[in-house]
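Question (not urgent): is this output format expected?
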Amino acid sequence: MAVITVVMLGVTWAGHRLSGTISDRRGFFQADGTMPWWAVSASIIATVVSAVTFVSVPAAVFAPEGNLTYFQVILGLALGKVVVARLLARPFYLSENLATSYHYIGARIDAPTGSFSMALGLLLNTINSGVKLLTASLVLDVISGWGLAGCALFIIAISAVWGALAGIKTVIWTDFLLFLLFAGGALFSLLYMLGELTAPLPETIVWLDAQAKLVLFDFDTDMSKSSTIWAGVIGAICLSIAQGSTQATWQRVKACRSVHDACKAFDFAALFYVVHLLILGVGLALFAFYGEKGLPQALTAQLVDAPDRIFPYFIATELPVGVSGLFVAAIFAAAISTLDSALAEGSDLTVNHLYAPLCKGRSESHYLLMSRVFMVFWALVFFALALFFSRYSAQGLLQLTFKLPNYIYGAIFASILLARFGIGSLRLILCGFVLACAIVAGLSLSGVAFFYWCPLSGAAMFGFVWLFDRRPLDFSGVVSAGPATSGR
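Got this back:
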């Protein structure tokens, strides 16, 4: 706990020193366009590599029927970042006098559609954050025994403090530092376990292959399977585009110094998915380690109801004191780098879309204060939702993380594409949304894997709106300069 405390305080101090000062909402939420692309790129991947990834991916590989097919999802997510760089980053950056990605949607289609998309974005952000806070809390509970509620409150409090210091500047700089921390933690844990094995590495690899742990690709066309190349790549690319419509993407694009830097940040984020490969390797090393040593009976019973506890258990019981603290800090880093971004996103949308229009004419210092107040509000919401989701952790948090948001990802995916090409209206989009929901319900009842829900429902919604709108596509995707919407 002492090591964890020192690491958290050190990152807080360094992030605050690097952030500088802010004077208005644009500086708080968009960093005044002053951030280097490499820091933004690390922040993009740090937001994606949550504690769910750090804890649940090794658990999924370790499971009796687990293997490396999650690599297919990693490949899709990496390709998705390249697509987002070309499809969204450039028009986002070049569109002026807009405060949020949903103002962009409103300007490209109509204001009510922007408000509807904002509601979907807030719902998505809340669901994702509740699951990710739950994961980090389970890890801390294994180490500290504070109970799930106490651990969740501790983690979300740190996230709120970091987000409130200097807004997105602090978030990006702390994300960069935390990215280095958890990437180093993943590499060290892999090397440490390999060093503890008594069997030579070639023999271990042969044994893992005999246990069917080294399967990378599955080309099965059965749509009930979520671990195929088709589900992983197509689904993950569409998920990346849907996530690209969120305010977190808008904030990072606008934080860059040029449109070239914004595109470069997303391109290099695709390369940083190598961290996910290290985490897959941790799962293999765990399986080999406990294959030699054997699992304690008490742990075997715990894994039935909480399969994601295997890596935290290894950290707590096998690593030396002090080193284990660094690993837990790395898992915290993965969790907090996601949660502080989610708090900044939720606060940004609440202030610029809801509060500012109702309380016009206030000073920027007042809006800055309310931005921090709303961060605390969303922290409490995430806390309550994490406790609710704890009822469903037995099915594995990796499945929970991907499945829950997929109920609405299709509609978000279609909305940003419609805005990007400048077609649609609120009436058509609402009808398309109902169609997308019906398709998701049908796919779910038919047993179709959740990775297909977003591309199929999103494509149907986009096609429906395009068919009845009948306007030509606008490929520029840029909103012309006009009066400031907010945050200026």
